[in-house]
Amino acid sequence: MDAPKIQAEGQLERAGGTRYEYGSHVLVVPDERDIRFVLRSENIQLREFEGQRVRITASLIEGESPDEGGPKLLDVFSISIQQE
């Protein structure tokens, strides 16, 4: 069974300053206070997109989020920069 695919848009930020230790970056969705997605990727250098508005396509990684109700961990396999 394949992992669920998710598409989302937001600003890509490094996760280093957050409490999420299970991904390298977070996706900040405009007008939302809570972070919904923590990101990782084995194929894409996410740091090259830091601070930019992006659209991602990713697979949901089940069972990796340490706290129930916390942000979902996504494995990003496609990313594109979005115009403001």
Summarize the structure in words.
The chain has a single domain, classed as OB fold (Dihydrolipoamide Acetyltransferase, E2P) (Beta Barrel). The protein contains no helices and 5 strands. The chain has 84 residues and is mainly β. 0% of the residues lie in helices and 43% in strands. Strand 2 (25-28) and strand 3 form a beta hairpin. The chain has strands at 5-14, 25-28, 37-40, 53-60, 72-81. The model has no long low-confidence stretch (mean pLDDT 85).
Question: Tags for this entry?
Answer:
5 strands; OB fold (Dihydrolipoamide Acetyltransferase, E2P); 84 residues; globular; five-stranded mixed beta barrel; mainly beta; 43% strand; single chain
Summarize the structure in short.
By secondary structure, the chain is mainly beta. The protein contains no helices and 5 strands.
| Major pleated sheet | 5 strands, mixed, barrel
CATH topology: OB fold (Dihydrolipoamide Acetyltransferase, E2P)
Roughly how much helix do the residues carry, as a percent range? under 10%
The best one-word shape is: globular
Strand order of the largest sheet: 1-2-3-5-4
How many structural domains in the coordinates?
Answer: 1
Report the count of strand segments. 5
Please state the average pLDDT score.
85
**Terminus-to-terminus distance:** 36 Å
Quick one: CATH class?
Answer: Mainly Beta
CATH architecture: Beta Barrel
Residue stretches low in confidence (pLDDT < 50, at least 5 long) are none
Radius of gyration: 12 Å
Global structural class:
mainly beta
Order of helices and strands: EEEEE
Name the beta content range. Answer: 35-45%
What is the helix tally? 0
